[in-house]
Amino acid sequence: MKRVNLTSQAGSWVDLREPSEVPERLRRPARRLQLSLAANPAFASVIKDASAGGAPRSVEDIDENEALAMAQQMGTEAFDAMDQLNDLSVVGRVMGWSFDAPVTTEALQDLPGAVYDELRALCADGALDTGLDLRPTLDEASPTAPSTASA
Questions:
Q1: In this structure, are residues 121 and 8 in contact, taking their beta carbons and an 8 Å threshold?
Q2: pTM greater than 0.85 (yes/no)
Q3: What total of structural domains would you count in the chain?
């Protein structure tokens, strides 16, 4: 566990689990969402387009207009699933916090936007990486011929 003082709200802190310590009870709903996203053709198309010409780009490399176009292309179902997945990533990593409410997705969504954004950024990397890698692959040479390769 690591205590992190939040910069978005003075006096606020979170206790973060290591990604490998996220309990299975908190990982399973996220894995279901990962599977549904991997099976979503519109989402796979956005990922393929974003990865064209080399390695996948980071969010920081995508401007606001391109992000809006990507969100419209993937549709509300996939966009909502990504939001839910981000929320589950935060709840999975955060063991405790300085806020009055218990750590739940509902309480997370009640936090001020700047705090929410900081928590998402803190918890994004590796939150649900242990176990199967369910991210879609666009590798044409994959021995399992992924369905997303033709998207």
A1: no
A2: no
A3: 1
